[in-house]
Structures are given as structure tokens and as C-alpha cells.
């Protein structure tokens, strides 16, 4: 399966307008944003766990990165409430589920295969002091990518001229980027060479961003 797999094109997905699609696991549904591959895929997805739903134990051969958007995600490593950012690198194992239900934004098979840096962070705890109405936390940075989280005041502009492509997820609030108005859980991906200028709406915005990673996009090595 290929979905939004042309990484030289601008892509906008208003995910709240998409129907939920069932996954192979009962009680776990998803909204696909981009994908290369079948059930084993380089994928960017919003995933919803019904209360009490659970995956069997498995290994993330290509790594997994996710944000808890609402509820509490759980595995044998602990409870992960809304606002938590998690990186489970290649070869990591867990048994994910949620007693109360949750929604996560997850990226699979998008790691450096030598990366073994496993961690979780409460994104808001990492925020630096605001500059021109934008407070930003650097969540992860390596030779391939930079991952950040920002609180953007009403009317302020979140900018990036990073090389290697940019993508953002609107965690809360609203921004306008070009001709697109992006509300909660909307996702924008910009190709290499296109800069970001996202102006927050009247309630401000909370925005997750990844930059520099698109030249490394490819199908899983399985």
C-alpha cells in the first residue's frame, strides 16, 4: 500500500474528517496519514485504542515514535498520559494497550537502524522561554532529524527553513499555513526546500514538528 508516498509534494490531511479504519487488533482503529507497505510499513498514523484493548507482545524492528494525544497509553514500562512523547528504537519490545482508552499519533520504521536511544518525555516540561510568542522544546535531535514541540501564542508565527522536509501535527488550537487552516489533529508535510510559516489562531496552538527526515524515507527492510 502507498499513501501520500510522494515526498516531493506538499500534503495536508485534516484527520478529524477521516473515517476510522479497523486494524487487525480488535478495539484498535486508525486514521492513516502516510504509508509505504502493508501491515509492516513505514507509516504515519493516528491510532485509537478502545478501553481495555491491547496488542500482543511484539518487537519494533524498525522503531516506533509516538505522542499520546488523549487518554492514557500503557505498556509494561508504565503509564503514558496525554502530552507524552515516546521513542522506542529498533529492537525494542513491549505489550501496548489502554485500560481507559487513548489516542496516539505514531510513526513506524522511521529510525536510524543503529539508534538505541529509548526514552519518554512530558513535552510541556521541556519548553524553553518564549521568543516572539513561540515557546519551543527540542524533544530529539540527531544527524537525520530534529523533533520539537511548540506553544504558539495567538497571532504569533511558527517558522522553519529546515532542509530535508518538514511535517507538523496540530496538537491543539489552530494555525494557518499558506492557504490551509489547520485545526486539531491536522497534519501538514512540506517537501525539502519549502519553508514553514504557520500563524496561530485566536486561541493559539500547540504544534509538534519533525524536520530533516524526508530524504531517508523508504519502505521497511523486511
Automatic annotation (TrEMBL):
Source domain of life is Bacteria
Q: Which SUPFAM superfamilies match?
A: RmlC-like cupins
Which CDD domains does the protein's record reference? Answer: cupin_ChrR_1
Q: One Pfam match, by short name?
A: Cupin_7
Residue ranges constituting the ChrR-like cupin domain according to the UniProt record = 9-111
Which InterPro entries does the protein's record reference? ChrR-like_cupin_dom (IPR025979), RmlC-like_jellyroll (IPR014710), RmlC_Cupin_sf (IPR011051)
Identify this protein by name: Cupin
Amino acid at each position: 500500500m502507498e499513501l501520500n508516498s510522494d515526498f516531493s509534494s506538499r500534503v495536508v490531511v485534516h484527520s478529524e474528517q477521516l473515517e476510522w479504519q479497523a486494524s487487525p487488533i480488535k478495539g484498535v482503529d486508525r486514521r492513516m496519514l502516510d504509508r509505504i507497505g502493508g501491515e509492516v510499513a513505514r507509516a504515519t498514523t493516528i491510532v485509537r485504542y478502545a478501553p481495555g484493548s491491547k496488542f500482543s507482545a511484539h518487537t519494533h524492528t524498525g522503531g516506533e515514535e509516538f505522542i499520546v494525544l488523549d487518554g492514557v497509553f500503557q505498556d509494561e514500562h508504565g503509564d503514558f498520559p496525554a502530552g507524552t512523547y515516546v521513542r522506542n528504537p529498533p529492537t525494542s519490545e513491549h505489550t501496548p494497550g489502554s485500560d481507559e482508552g487513548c489516542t496516539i499519533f505514531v510513526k513506524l520504521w522511521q529510525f536510524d537502524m543503529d539508534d538505541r536511544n529509548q526514552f519518554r518525555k512530558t513535552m510541556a516540561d521541556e519548553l524553553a522561554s518564549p521568543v516572539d510568542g513561540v515557546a519551543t522544546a527540542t524533544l530529539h535531535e540527531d544527524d537525520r532529524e530534529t523533533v520539537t514541540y511548540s506553544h504558539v501564542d495567538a497571532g504569533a508565527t511558527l517558522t522553519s527553513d529546515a532542509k530535508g522536509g518538514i511535517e507538523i501535527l496540530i496538537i491543539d488550537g489552530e494555525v494557518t499555513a499558506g492557504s490551509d487552516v489547520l485545526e486539531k489533529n491536522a497534519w501538514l508535510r512540506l517537501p525539502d526546500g519549502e519553508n514553514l510559516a504557520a500563524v496561530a489562531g485566536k486561541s493559539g496552538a500547540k504544534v509538534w514538528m519533525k524536520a530533516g527526515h524526508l530524504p531517508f524515507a523508504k519502505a521497511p527492510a523486511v
